[in-house]
Design a protein that fits this description.
By secondary structure, the protein is mostly beta strands. Helix content is 9%, strand content 42%. The chain has a six-stranded mixed sheet, with helices on one face. Strands 5-13-10-11-26-27 form a six-stranded mixed sheet, with no helix packed on it. The chain folds into two domains: 214 residues, no CATH class; 99 residues. It has six helices and 28 strands. β17 and β18 form a beta hairpin.
């Protein structure tokens, strides 16, 4: 069980490969006031139905469709129940005109509905006190090209004590006909049930600590080198040597294979938190750019900062996660790229005291980018003094 405030009770669980009888189960040892639910796309419609039942019990609900749940699992639901309400901050409604103009989620007489006003009318709501999922046609089924198939840019930001994480959402077009699926239910709120592309929530924890896990292997034995020439996101020289030439001369990197990726940690000279970036390009053997290593565009290292180099090899991207690092904490992961749309079926498994989500696009925690496959940030909460 996770704890932060002295009287805050929290219960978390993650269900892998939920069965048809799966339901959101509120804890029995306390009366929850709020719940955050992360669901992979194939479970999201069922979770929508379940969230309505939770709202009927007076529970504040936040639901978001994500690529994976803890352990990089592609089929699962993760729940975090709390006996204090969470705070709804900034949110932005999904631009339905760009996605699918006829489809929307709204509340009707206190019920959550997914509907299409022109071609198709789909409802997910309660009827006679029971969950109901119906489809009412008002003409022809919309053509496939009615959808915008671009990658969704929706995200959820979660504030946990002093830790702030922004995670990209999953593409849920095949599940709900929305590019992404995210909403909150809060009785009396005028925007409850609306499909959102952005949402910020603050959980009722006061303190938090973070630990980063990754599969990076250090180059140059993890040595910190001084940046002696730099322009924007372009590293030119470290320790007075050509940055690109230094990497090209590293035997460990040259033997790692073409599919390997290079990452850096930048240690600012002011002693602030190290930054993490990917090397996205390197100069050739000659010419004006021969010394240059380009980092992510948002990188702005300064002369005098320190840098260390790392490699992520292809075999490390697929390393199975350890369950122990997810226990009793909140975790966010950079999910490995999905290799199959028909993953092997697994029996249902419930992991107690486990909550979190992952995205193939990575995430940002306290301004630090985490985008290497398998990278995980675990957040532990602390009890107030």
């Amino acid at each position: 069980m996770l704890r932060s405030l002295r009287f805050l009770s929290v219960s978390s669980r993650t269900t892998i490969s939920p069965s048809k009888g799966y339901s959101l189960r509120a804890p029995t040892d306390f009366a929850p006031k709020s719940v955050v639910v992360f669901s992979t796309p194939q479970n999201i419609k069922h979770v929508i139905m379940e969230s309505v039942e939770s709202m009927k019990q007076g529970v504040q609900v936040v639901v978001a469709g994500v690529d994976t749940v803890p352990g990089n699992q592609r089929n699962g639901v993760s729940e975090l129940w709390m006996d204090e309400p969470l705070k709804i901050g900034h949110f932005k409604e999904l631009d339905l005109a760009e996605q699918y103009p006829e489809q929307q989620v709204h509340t009707h007489n206190g019920e959550v509905c997914m509907s299409g006003h022109s071609h198709q009318h789909q409802h997910q709501h309660t009827h006679g006190g029971e969950p109901c999922s119906g489809s009412h046609s008002h003409g022809e089924e919309p053509a496939a090209n009615s959808y915008n198939w671009s990658k969704p840019d929706g995200s959820i930001t979660i504030n946990i004590g002093t830790t702030h994480t922004t995670l990209a959402l999953a593409n849920t077009l095949f599940a709900t006909q929305f590019a992404n699926t995210m909403f909150f239910l809060e009785k009396g709120h005028p925007k409850q049930g609306q499909v959102l592309s952005e949402l910020e929530i603050t959980l009722p924890f006061q303190k938090s600590t973070t630990v980063v896990h990754d599969e990076w292997e250090p180059l140059f034995d993890g040595k910190k080198m001084e940046i002696t020439s730099v322009a924007g996101n372009l590293l030119k020289q470290v320790d007075g040597q050509s940055c690109a030439g230094l990497l090209q001369g590293n035997d460990r990197l040259m033997s790692a294979g073409k599919e390997s990726e290079v990452y850096v940690k930048i240690f600012p000279k002011d002693g602030s938190e190290p930054q993490r970036f990917k090397c996205i390009a390197s100069g050739g053997a000659w010419g004006a750019k021969k010394d240059i290593v380009a980092l992510n565009p948002e990188a702005q290292p300064q002369r005098g900062d320190k840098v260390s180099f790392y490699v992520l090899s292809p075999e490390k991207k697929a390393v199975p996660p350890t369950e122990s690092k997810h226990f009793g904490v909140i975790s966010f992961e950079c999910s490995p790229e999905q290799q199959s749309f028909d993953p092997p079926k697994q029996p249902e498994q419930t992991l107690t005291h486990v909550f979190g989500a992952g995205s193939e696009q990575g995430f940002v925690t306290n301004g630090i980018i985490h985008e290497s496959s398998g990278e995980t940030v675990v957040i532990a909460t602390e009890e107030s003094p």
